[in-house]
Design brief:
By secondary structure, the chain is of the alpha+beta class. The protein has one domain (5-185): Peptide Deformylase (Alpha-Beta Complex), CATH 3.90.45. 26% of the residues lie in helices and 31% in strands. It has helices at 27-40, 73-79, 139-152, 163-177, and strands at 5-6, 45-47, 57-61, 83-105, 108-126, 132-138, 187-188. It has a 5-stranded antiparallel β-sheet, sandwiched between helices. The mean pLDDT is 94.
């Protein structure tokens, strides 16, 4: 089932996600819905807060990068098979030089900005079978994980922009939060009555 993606301005995107256990109700159904929702919006990652659940789950499917001719063959081959569920994830360390990449977000459509992130991360997480892993990721894979991990920490990529850049996109962000945007996937916008 394709779920609506929560738009910028909704308080759920600012909540620190809670850990879950393997008894979480209908987990397999939730994960299936998350993948279907992400594919329906042509995304490569989706975090539970983006569908209104303040829990520590995110999913990634980086296979669209397998056709990116600008990437080295080794990275392209890895990304071409990189499809993963991350539950109760915790980044243990971020290392390497910071590098810039143009990022976007399904909750903030039509806004793309250059964001600096570390090259390599080490992360602990459970997969969909609740098996624990500790792995290192680098390059694009690390960046996608960092972006989705931020969501379960209540952080958006726009938080990493300079104050000047934030001022320049303020109007766009306001329009998104009010639903004044054209998109080709389902979204849920903040309840205007509950806004301060």
């Amino acid at each position: 089932m394709i779920l609506p993606i929560i738009a910028y301005g909704d308080p759920v995107l600012r909540k620190l996600g809670k850990n879950i256990d393997k008894e979480y109700p209908a987990l397999e159904f939730l994960l299936d819905n998350m993948f279907e929702t992400m594919y329906g919006a042509k995304g490569i990652g989706l975090a539970a807060p983006q569908i209104g659940l303040p829990i520590r789950i995110f999913i990634i499917d980086a296979t669209p990068f397998q056709d990116d001719e600008e990437l080295e063959v080794e990275e392209r081959n890895f990304l071409g098979t990189f499809k993963q569920v991350f539950i109760n994830a915790k980044i243990i360390e971020e290392t390497g030089d910071e590098w810039v990449f143009n990022e976007g977000c399904l909750s903030i459509p039509d806004v793309r900005e250059d964001i600096f992130r570390n090259e390599t991360i080490k992360i602990e997480y459970f997969d969909e079978k609740f098996e624990k892993h500790t792995k290192k990721f680098s390059g694009i894979a690390a960046r996608i994980i960092q972006h989705e991990y931020d969501h379960i920490e209540g952080i958006l990529f726009t938080d990493k922009l300079s104050s000047l850049k934030k001022r320049l996109i303020k109007g766009k962000l306001t329009n998104i939060s009010k639903g004044k945007i054209r998109i080709d996937y389902r979204m849920r916008f903040p309840d205007k009555k509950k806004k301060r």
